[in-house]
Design brief:
The complex is a heterodimer of chains A (279) and B (314).
Chain A (H helix, E strand, L loop, with lengths): L5 H28 L4 H4 L14 H7 L7 H34 L3 H11 L4 H14 L6 H26 L3 H8 L4 H12 L1 H17 L2 H6 L7 H10 L5 H21 L1 H8 L7
Helix pairs in contact in A: 1-13, 3-13, 4-7, 4-10, 4-12, 5-7, 7-10, 8-9, 12-13
Chain B lengths: L23 H29 L1 E2 L9 E2 L3 H9 L1 H33 L5 H8 L1 H4 L2 H11 L6 H10 L15 H27 L2 H9 L4 H29 L3 H6 L11 H10 L4 H34 L1
Antiparallel strand pairs in B: 1-2
Helix pairs in contact in B: 1-13, 2-13, 3-8, 3-10, 3-12, 8-10, 9-10, 10-13, 12-13
Classes of the chains: A mainly alpha (279), B mainly alpha (314).
């Protein structure tokens, strides 16, 4: 690379620092707000740094009225649904991904059809799913959301894992089959342990997609099940908005996301483009 | 055209190297997933299609009635609100994704100059991409707040208080812009990430060759880098197109389609028709129209991805 003049390098630093400020400010503002008392929020000029960093808002937000379950219910329900659909989509998806990667089962068309189901607009399947869940009495249960999210994550899981399996050398499995293992044995004892890191990455992505999901949670739940993505907007709608507490719920809601942004960075481009671009 | 994306992409394994002839196991391994996906795509598709030719208004209590193609006629010829929603969505897609691509590319080029800090800065930039759109909407609810929001306060400092009390989300002229800005804030780093991956895949020899041949900086960018980056940019734009076309969460949290319906997207309008006005037949027709649009774009995406992958294999 050519040497860049110091002026140009300074410009790069300025641009990137400005970009970091713009892209992190809203998150930082929510974080700061989560510690503000109500008078501090309703102040002009706005208070940037709250006086105390006590966890009052967090404690209150976790068990606000009417039923005293508030935020803690959101954490519980979001966890149950995200973990449930993560496990389900991985269990169903892994064998399919392996089969597509190694045997081209159903040809290119089948695997591309699987990917295309990922692009189905959720609002188009919301109504039929709603009617089915109503008949099965699954509305307002964890099952409805686990099912709906599993369905939407499955194509993603299959497609991403297919790429990870294709990255593995095929020779080990061939040797095992020649030595008399069944295909399923080669998959279970050789390919599966080797694809471990890819499996973890895929599972975490699936977790985050469900964790972030909003429309299904809005339509298929009412009172018994309330994810964090439902609780936050429902608190902003009312007359007296306790901004500090809502922000506290918001901060809790983005903890896994921030962790994964930092941990999964190397795989983000692959996950977010459905394996189309490998970083 | 030879295109290369990503670094260590293996050639596809020749089919049937492990298995010679037909084996049952691979089919059995695919079966559960295919059954599940068939159930959720074919079933909603059929039931949606069946409903598109019905009039079924839950609010009136009349039983479903066959109306032929009237639901589609209503959308295309008698419903200005449908076209309004389509227009808003179109503006969001064109302006929003356009800005994301341009700013994202610029940031990627700058970030590419960075040494060891690159990974760290990129990680921080990617936080918006990872968080739930609803939470992003909530954050901007606070930032746009007319009385106590930091945005108006900062603008006040430069304009002598002209922005004090200005309600961004209540002004029909700028509300859609505020929604677009939120979406651009959330997804620009995604384009940065994609373009950066493309930049890293460009062989250093190519750039050196350009330099030896006396190409200036802008020439190298336009004639050498951009053509090589094009495949990843197209992939990124298509992914964003499909997502932005479905935009719902941010609208729900920021403006609920208002003021009036200047920020109503097609996904949000469909939601209103289905779950607020309970016109099941009409909702299905709207859903079906979106399905067609998405399917067309998805096909382009898939074909393109096939081509890019094929290009890499050579």
């Amino acid at each position: 690379m050519r040497r860049r003049p110091p002026g140009r390098r300074l410009l790069t630093s300025v641009i990137l620092i400005a970009a970091l400020a713009v892209f992190l400010f809203p998150v930082a503002w929510m974080f700061l707000t989560s510690f503000k008392s109500n008078p501090e929020f309703f102040a002009y000029p706005p208070v940037f740094i709250p006086k105390s960093f006590a966890l009052t808002n967090y404690v209150d937000a976790m068990r606000f009225p009417p039923d005293g379950r508030g935020g803690i219910q959101g954490v519980r329900d979001s966890l149950i649904i995200s973990v449930g659909s993560m496990v389900a989509s991985v269990v169903v998806g892994v064998p399919a991904a392996y089969s597509f990667a190694r045997f081209r089962t159903g040809g290119e068309n089948l695997s591309f059809w699987v990917l295309s189901t990922r692009m189905f607009p959720p609002v188009a399947s919301a109504l039929p799913l709603f009617l089915v869940f109503k008949v099965l009495h699954l509305l307002d249960t964890h099952w409805a959301l686990i099912l709906a999210n599993t369905i939407f994550n499955l194509p993603f899981v299959i497609w991403l894992l297919k790429g990870f399996f294709e990255d593995l050398p095929v020779e080990l499995e061939e040797a095992a089959v020649i030595d008399g293992t069944t295909i399923f044995g080669a998959f279970r004892r050789i390919a599966l342990p080797l694809v471990g890191p890819g499996l973890v990455v895929t599972a975490l992505f699936s977790f985050i997609f469900t964790w972030n999901e909003f429309m299904f949670a809005l339509l298929f739940t009412r009172r018994d099940v309330r994810t964090l993505t439902i609780i936050v907007p429902s608190l902003v709608g009312g007359h007296e908005i306790l901004w500090g507490q809502v922000a506290a719920v918001g901060v809790v809601a983005i903890i896994p996301n921030v962790l994964l942004a930092l941990l999964l960075q190397r795989f983000l481009v692959r996950g977010l483009t459905l394996g189309a671009v490998k970083g | 055209m030879e295109t290369r994306v990503g670094r260590d992409v293996p050639a596809p394994q020749p089919a049937g190297r492990v298995a010679r002839g037909f084996r049952l196991t691979p089919v059995l391994m695919v079966l559960p997933a295919v059954v599940v996906l068939l159930a959720i795509t074919v079933f909603p598709l059929v039931s949606t299609l069946r409903l598109t030719v019905m009039s079924w208004e839950l609010t009136t209590g009349f039983p479903p009635q066959f109306v032929g193609l009237q639901n589609f006629a209503r959308a295309f010829f008698h419903d200005p609100r449908f076209w309004n929603a389509m227009m808003n969505t179109g503006v969001l897609v064109v302006v929003g994704v356009g800005l994301q691509t341009l700013i994202g590319m610029g940031l990627a080029l700058e970030l590419h100059q960075l040494g060891r800090l690159r990974t760290f800065v990129l990680s921080l930039l990617l936080i918006p991409v990872m968080i739930a759109p609803v939470i992003a909407g909530f954050q901007f609810r606070m930032i746009y707040n007319d009385q106590f929001g930091p945005l108006n306060y900062l603008l006040d400092q430069f304009t002598g208080g002209r922005f004090h009390g200005y309600a961004w989300l209540a002004d029909p002229r700028v509300a859609l812009g505020a929604v677009i800005f939120t979406d651009v804030w959330q997804w620009t780093p995604f384009m940065t990430l994609v373009v950066l991956a493309g930049l890293q895949a460009i062989p250093a020899e190519l750039l050196e060759a350009a330099e030896v041949d006396g190409a200036t900086g802008p020439q190298t960018l336009w004639r050498v880098m951009l053509p090589l980056l094009l495949p990843v940019i197209v992939i990124g734009v298509l992914v964003r197109f499909m997502d932005t076309f479905k935009l719902f969460d941010i609208v729900y949290q920021l403006t609920a389609g208002g003021p009036g319906n200047v920020t109503e997207t097609i996904a949000y309008y469909t939601y209103l028709e289905g779950f607020k006005f309970f016109s099941l037949g009409y909702t299905s027709a709207l859903a079906f129209i979106q399905l067609v649009v998405i399917t067309v774009v998805a096909q382009v995406f898939l074909r393109y991805q096939k081509r890019v992958r094929a290009g890499m294999a050579t």
